[in-house]
Each structure stands twice: as C-alpha cells, then as structure tokens.
Amino acid sequence: MANSPSGDSVVDRIVRLISAFPQDIGALQLSDLAQRAGLPLTTTHRLVGQLAAHGLLEAAPGGMVRPGVRLWELANRTSPTLALRQAAMPFMEDIQQVLHQNVNLAVLDGWEALFVERLSRRGSVANRAQVAGRMPVHISSAGLALMAHQDKAAQEEYLRGFTDPDGKVGPDAVRALLAETSHQGFAQLKGVVDPDTWGIAVPVLNRRQRAVASLGVVVPLREMRLQALVPALQTAARGIARQMADF
C-alpha cells in the first residue's frame, strides 16, 4: 500500500534504496544514498535503521552505509544463478588455465547482460565485466550471444524499443549483429568496450535451443585466435548445459 506523496509503497522505497548502491562503490554517505535513491533524507535514515536491524544494510564508520552480509546471504541462498555458477566453474577454470585471460558467465536480464561470475588473474587484460555488473546487449559479446538465441518475439520486442544512449548504433545495425551471431553460433566484438581487447562469447543452450547463459572470454587483440577459442568455448558451454539438472 502506498503511503508517501509520490505514491511509492514501502517495498518500492526499500528496493530503490538497496538498488542505489553502484557496483564499483562499497559504501555511501547517507545523504548520497538518499540522493541516488530519490528519497528524503529523513525517510532514508529511518529505512536504513530498519534494514540495518535485520542485517540487510550496515552502518559503517564515518556515517557511511553499505550492504549487509545478511543481504548477500539471502541473495545467494536460493538464487537461480547458483546452480549455473556451480556447473560452470570447472569449465571456466579449464578455459582460464589455457588462455590465462578473463573468462565470464552472464545471463540475460531485461535488455542487459548480467554477469554472474568472472575469473581473471594478474596480468590479464582489462575487463569491464564485473560480477553483479551489467552491460547493454549491443556493446557486449555476452549480450549478443544471449539475445541472438532468444525467440523471435523477444528479439523483435528488444529491437522495437532499442535506443543507443551514445547515438552511434541503430536498430538495423543491431539486427545485423544478432543475425550474424545466430548464424555463426558465437558473438564477437572488437574494441567496443576497450580498444585493446576482443570479446568472444557463446550461448549455453537449453533443450529448446534458447540461451540461458553465455560463456565468454576477453583477450588482447594481438592474441586473438578465433579458430581455437570458439570450439573450446562451445565445448565448455555444452558441458555446462549437461550439468544443469533443470534444462
């Protein structure tokens, strides 16, 4: 039930508050949190106190607020990505052992690729894909691999509403990328997120041949070996699919 001038319910405000934490910042000042959540400072203070009492948020030194351990525990206890991560990890480790570069696992959430796992090591190239981070479909090989292997209705809905905030790419160009990805069975993007890297991703397919995840790597341009990378990724993706009991 809504009980605020804006019409937001208590649940709406709690979700806005928890969602206001950016992926690369672990804690925020209370006033910054209120501003990012679009809530009055007094409301934010009250909700933070209530959530902290349940361990969902935590009051840090210096008046900072950060997500609580209880929030992480609940999110991971029954998360549908937990089985996926467990099934994928041995295959991701094998690929990283061979490539010595970043390996990532993503799922489609709305019109974005949501990264649920990533392996990297010292000396690997820059990788903007962070665990629990998101990227728009059209700028990530993971996103293209996922969207290209959805049903046509989902693809058309995505393309009808597509806008590029930078104004560099239109729906027709994205449609061509999706068609190419579907035909090839893998997605590749050269220097889109980082000019010195190449992203390659393949879909993890269920029994209906729809992508439930994508498995990808980020490699330096100078070390790009498409003919070796793609078969290795596709073999690993099939292995992950076999391990998933609910496919």
TrEMBL record:
Top-level taxon of origin: Bacteria
Domain spans labelled HTH iclR-type: 8-69
Keywords: DNA-binding, Transcription, Transcription regulation
Gene3D superfamilies linked: 3.30.450.40, Winged helix-like DNA-binding domain superfamily/Winged helix DNA-binding domain (1.10.10.10)
The IclR-ED domain, residue ranges: 70-246
Protein name from the UniProt record: IclR family transcriptional regulator
Source species of the chain: Arthrobacter sedimenti
